[in-house]
Amino acid sequence: MIRKNKIDTPPCTECKNKNSIFCILSDEEKENLSVSKGSNFYQKGQVVFYEGNYPHGLFCIHKGKVKISKLGDEGKEQVVRLAGTGEILGYRAVLSGESYKATATVLEDSYICHLSKDSFNKILEENNVFSLSIIKLLSQDLKNSESQLLNISQKPARERLAETLLILKEKFGLDEDNQLDLVLTRRELGDIAGVTVETAIRTISDFNKENVIAIKGKKIQFKNIPKLIKIANIID
Amino acid sequence: MIRKNKIDTPPCTECKNKNSIFCILSDEEKENLSVSKGSNFYQKGQVVFYEGNYPHGLFCIHKGKVKISKLGDEGKEQVVRLAGTGEILGYRAVLSGESYKATATVLEDSYICHLSKDSFNKILEENNVFSLSIIKLLSQDLKNSESQLLNISQKPARERLAETLLILKEKFGLDEDNQLDLVLTRRELGDIAGVTVETAIRTISDFNKENVIAIKGKKIQFKNIPKLIKIANIID
DNA sequence: CGCTTAATTGAACATACTCAAAATTTGTGG
DNA sequence: CCACAAATTTTGAGTATGTTCAATTAAGCG
Question: What is the pTM of this model?
Answer without folding.
Answer: 0.94
